[in-house]
Write a structure and sequence with these properties.
Layout: E1 15-18, E2 26-30, E3 38-44, H1 59-67, E4 71-75, H2 88-98, H3 100-107, E5 109-119, H4 121-130, E6 151-154, H5 160-165, H6 172-177, H7 185-191, H8 193-196, E7 203-210, H9 216-228, E8 233-242, H10 254-263
Parallel strand pairs: 3-4, 3-5, 5-6, 6-7, 7-8
Antiparallel strand pairs: 1-2, 2-4
Helix pairs in contact: 2-4
């Protein structure tokens, strides 16, 4: 269990569908039995936004959520080292999520019941996806209204300035954004869910008590600010879990993640 989820072969997806021309612009769709319409989880994998980590390992959590009754849309996106960085990575996430509108009818997807979830760097991206309506209308990724019912951050790096200060992910936050917060405050203001609060939709943050990659303080600091600004936020800390237990369906910790997702639909 735990870290071996990164290398253990995952169940195959039902479909691999492109949403752009770049090799990293595609998603893997898994469908529960029946014709639908199915509720949907847009899932963003982690890996410190680095190209060496792809969506393959996320097949485990997506297959488990599909078994629980959700269609899962496991998004790949450009990352640091293969054309990603700011804003390309976020733009891919927005474009990939929006592609649900194109495929919904063909695959029986219920666009009125969509949530986002993500792990680690993907937790950041899932929360950012939920915050798109907070961007300026001039921003290419802007969404006029909240497009999701809720969002689950699984050990997510949802406060980029704090993650940068702590040197999390080996300093990848500064690589993603091109520098530290002191030099690029405007960029951090657009990229960090912490800075975009309030989101105006339910948020659940799940953390492992033995997680050096995304320490609990990131979720606690985010939740405190979100509550101050009127958002409905829940934090769940699993004392015995590490960073990877949370996304491994073979781990006892995963049941809490599954229940968090179920609670939002």
């Amino acid at each position: 269990m735990g870290r071996d989820v990164l290398t253990r072969p995952a169940p195959r997806a039902d479909e691999r569908i492109r949403y752009g021309d770049d090799p990293s612009q595609f998603g893997e769709l898994r469908l529960p039995p029946g014709s639908g319409p199915h509720p949907v989880v847009v899932y963003l994998h982690g890996g410190c936004w680095m190209a060496e980590y792809d969506l393959a390992h996320a097949g485990h959590i997506c297959a488990a959520l599909t078994a629980a009754g959700f269609a899962t849309w496991n998004l790949e996106y450009r990352r640091i080292g293969n054309g990603g960085g700011w804003p390309a990575t976020a733009q891919d996430v927005a474009r990939g999520a929006d592609h649900l509108r194109t495929i919904a009818a063909a695959y029986g997807l219920d666009l009125g019941r969509v949530i986002a979830a993500g792990h680690s760097a993907g937790g950041h991206l899932a929360m950012w996806l939920a915050a798109r309506h907070r961007l300026s209308p001039d921003d290419p990724s802007h969404l006029a209204v909240p497009g999701l019912l809720g969002v689950v951050s699984i050990a997510g790096l949802v406060d980029l300035a704090r993650a940068s200060a702590l040197g999390l992910c080996g300093g990848a936050v500064q690589t993603l954004l091109g520098g530290p917060p002191a030099k690029l405050p405007g960029r951090y203001a657009l990229a960090s869910p912490y800075e975009l609060l309030p989101l105006g939709l339910p948020q659940i943050l799940v953390s492992g008590g033995h997680d050096p990659i995304a320490p609990v303080e990131i979720a606690e600091r985010y939740a405190a600010r979100a509550k101050e600004r009127g958002d409905a936020v829940e934090t769940i800390t699993l004392d015995d879990a590490d960073h990877f237990d949370l996304i491994d369906p073979l781990s006892p910790a995963f049941a809490h993640v599954r229940e968090a997702v179920l609670s939002l639909i």
